[in-house]
Specification:
Elements (H helix, E strand, L loop, with lengths): L2 H30 L17 H25 L3 H19 L12 H19 L9 H4 L9
Helix pairs in contact: 1-2, 1-4, 2-3, 3-4
Amino acid sequence: MSKTMSLKTGFIDLAAALFVIGGVVSLVLNILTIPISSIYPFQLPSSVSFVPAVVLVVSLICSLGAIHCYTLVSQRRLSEAGMRGIIFGALLLTFSLGLVVASKELNTGLGAISAFLILVAGAISFVLRDAVLPRPPIVMHQPMLQRNP
């Protein structure tokens, strides 16, 4: 394997790791911001308004989507992983900086850092989308599904 191919493979592995780290940290932070007034019986406080609830749900979806981008990178579908990662990272960064809702629970520095990691991973994947890389051994051993016309 040439030196440039190993460098590209290293950057793609870095992007996969950044997707996982950023997605998991963001997911944990978003789960911890769910306003629960009591565990049993499970109740949400009556002061929760509509916009912060929507922001929380979209943040959870973006965090799960960032974790899914790891799967796309491991399958070498870099274009899809790059675009989705950039979109998810930008949304999470917007929410974590408090540009949509001026909420203290969602405005965390760790959330901004995890969103930035997802953005960097998406940019790496999108830039290297045309790199011709060999499939990883795990993907090569999986059987190909045949479509019946």
